Amino acid sequence: MSEDRTPIISIRNVKKTYKTRNTELEALGDVSFDVFPGEFVSIVGPSGCGKTTLLKILAGLLPRTSGEIVVDPANFNIEREVGFVFQKPLLLHWRKVLDNVLLPIEILKIDRRSMVDKARSLLALVGLEGFEDRYPNELSGGMQQRVSIARALIHDPKLLLMDEPFGALDAITRERLNMELLQIWEKTKKTILFVTHGINEAVFLSDRVVVLTARPSRMAASLDIKLPRPRAQTVRTHPDFGRYALEIYKDLELS
User: What are the CA-CA distances from residue 147 to residues 123, 129, 132, 139, 166 (Å)?
Assistant: First the structure.
């Protein structure tokens, strides 16, 4: 994690209420925490507690009802420096892999020709060199999610938001992609905010785990994970790994 202790983004008392014709649903109750440059932070919490809602608010895809999102203006432009990896790859089936990766470049009106080599490098980084001209339906689910990670990185965002990106994958593929994600994080030094239901996954990946309560969610705990890096699968046998997982589990039970 970076030694810079100025938050890249501060979430202060953020709330989200959905209004319907007859009622209001408080999806996000009152959430506050900071995210620091280069940090890998996981968010865990019960289903429906607003984890995805929070990421969408941070990405500018949803308005917040109240509260503040404060960014470090010297280091971060929230409108252009956020990458988003969704639960499903959401690739355009009629576009080849390389063209899917380059989609944000077209949206941001950046010269496409200047970014083709970078797109190829990112595909190599996620283990897909040689698949540039394939279509999404020719790839496995794990390979499609690798494409979506490359797509989220193409415009060099400082903050990468990941919404349960491996939740639909089998356990073996999920563990393999966990390792690949850590390698990407170590190489790119991106700040990552990662939503997961997996307590062990959160402990394995993170510098810090934020635990949210059931809806309307509030922060139940923020736990620093002081396991050695770089991490390999053997870190799961570290004496503190089970202790961290149990502490998160207890925080969830008490929330």
Answer: 7, 11, 10, 10, 13
Buried b (16+ CB within 10 A) or exposed e, 4-27: eeebbbbbeebbbeeeeeeeeeeb
DSSP line for 97-109: HHHHHTHHHHHTT
The three-class DSSP label of residue 77 is coil
pLDDT (tens digit, 0 to 9) for every residue of the chain, 255 residues total?
A: 445 578 889 999 999 998 887 888 888 888 999 999 999 999 999 888 889 999 999 988 899 999 998 887 666 666 678 999 999 999 999 999 999 999 999 988 889 889 999 999 999 999 999 999 999 999 999 999 999 999 999 999 989 999 999 988 888 989 999 999 999 999 998 999 999 999 999 999 999 999 998 887 888 999 999 999 999 999 999 999 999 999 999 998 876
Query: What letter represents residue 129's amino acid?
Result: E
